[in-house]
Amino acid sequence: MAEVGVSQAVLVEPKEDTGRKLPQYIAALSATLGALAAGSMLGWSSPVVFKITQANSTDYPFEVSSSNGDWVSSLINLGAAAVCFPIGLVMDAIGRKKTMLLLTLPFTLGWLLITFAPNVATLMVGRFITGVAGGAFCVTAPAYTSEIAQDSIRGTLGSYFQLMITVGILFAYAVGSYTSVFVFNILCTIIPIVFCVVFFFMPESPNFLVMKGRLDDAREALVKLRGQNYDVDSELTKLQNKAEDTRNNPVSFLSSITKKTALKALLICYALMLFQQFSGINAVIFNTSAIFTSAGATIPAAIATIIVGVIQVVATFVSSLAVDRLGRRVLLLFSALVMCLCSTALGVFFFLKETHGDDASIVQAISWLPLLSLSLFFVAFSLGFGPIPWMMAGELCLIDIKAFVSSTAGTFNWLLSFTVTSTFNSLNTAIGPGQVFWVFAGIMLVGFIFIFFIVPETKGKSVDEIQYMLGAEPETQNTSEKN
Fold it and tell me: Which one, of 192, 194, 212, lies nearest residue 91 by Cα?
């Protein structure tokens, strides 16, 4: 779930940071319509799998067992993991814009297979294909956004991807709960088509165009993104110098990836991905309806799920405003601590429910706890661990390893998501839901300690300053200018 970029070279711009911002906001929001499609894909499982695994379900002309439902939910993660690395090569070859437009095809095909599936196998194939398309968007859209944005709004625009993911999840919760599975699937099919129509009119990444030697096209793209009064030639010259420096001073990949700064960046990027997924976020998203039903909440599961979705959207929007003000590290620490407390509270509720029974007075007295805990859990995740791990992957790494780290971190993230979502229900059965949430809480406590001692603050820091915080020698900092 989320925002990863390959070859996310940050545009260098004049110090006065002038230029129109509105065209950049429009282009970024257009690109993240793909995230809306990915979000609907992620949220689809919560209302739909809960329906189709019921004994009396008539949504498909075949039965879907509980174990099949686990696979239907989690297969998108394998599709996304499979595409993260190759899509980086594709987007560097044909461009960010063309790559995203072409992703409309697998997205549409996947949803059509899901809609008209004659058997469980076809349903699973459709989910896998939509996972491929969604995972590819999680690479290409943040890369595009990073490369079109001026430094002063890079963090804000970068967080829009996670915002649109949450809007897509809310769409799935709200519409999927109150329409038939068929109607919901058709609506999900339309979203990537709308994206294709809107994004068709957006400019290509100027950074990509310069790397390909298409200077006139790059200049035209910069004018569209910055406005006529912006010093386009100055930025274009700096992009050219950076591209020439990269070509004229090649550094072996092995020497780049084994530097002390690179190894620490790798550790931080992969660890943040691990903590993000082992917080249990996707297991909760995929099973929100089932969690509320099993909790015996006084609010109907569908309503409670929609409330959680709204809260997640609002919190992610707040994060987009705060990430360039409060900083990445503060938000991560807050996120880890609150998620730890919420998972602990959920564990207590389910443990008491399991040991005392549904009708016990203590269980009835705290029947409000699942909704409150999940709501705060999503708030905390959306403020920190949702958008920031992807953002840090782009900020900590130099350009010579950024493509590798971003794509492999994305693959690692989706594989972790598959592991958590595919084992969540089995773990609930094996050790109890209360104990499962306590495991998630323990992992977030470890994450809090890791962030406090290891993760640097990158807000407002230049490439040089970030590398120095990672351990680079001050006298060698000028080498990092090629980022």
Answer: 212
Q: What is the count of structural domains for the chain?
A: 1
Token pair recorded at residue 76: 């998108």
Residue-wise burial string across 328-347, b where 16 or more C-beta atoms lie within 10 A, e elsewhere: bbbbbbbbbbbbbbbbbbbb
- pLDDT on residue 253: 67
Nearest to 324 by CA among 35, 39, 17: 17
Would 190 be classed as within a structural domain? Answer: yes
The CATH code of the domain that includes 104 is 1.20.1250.20
**Positive or negative torsion for Cα 30, 36, 38, 41:** negative
DSSP secondary structure of 51-76: HHTSTT--SSSS---HHHHHHHHHHH
Contacts of 193 (CB under 8 A, 6+ apart): 104, 108
Torsional sign, CA 249, 255, 260, 265: positive
pLDDT of amino acid 198: 94
Residue type, 207: N
Q: Positive or negative, the Cα torsion across 431, 435, 441, 445?
A: negative
DSSP annotation string for 228-258: TTS-HHHHHHHHHHHHHHHHHS---HHHHHT
pLDDT at 391: 77
Q: How far apart are CA 55 and CA 424, in angstroms?
A: 21
Which of 425, 421, 416, 165 shows the shortest CA–CA distance to 283? 421
Q: What share of the chain is helix, strand, coil (3-state, %, to 5)?
A: 80, 0, 20
- Min mean pLDDT across 173-177, 251-255, 444-448 is at 251-255
Instruction: Decide if 166 contacts 309 (C-beta within 8 A).
Output: yes
Domain holding 374, by residue range, is 22-202+251-482
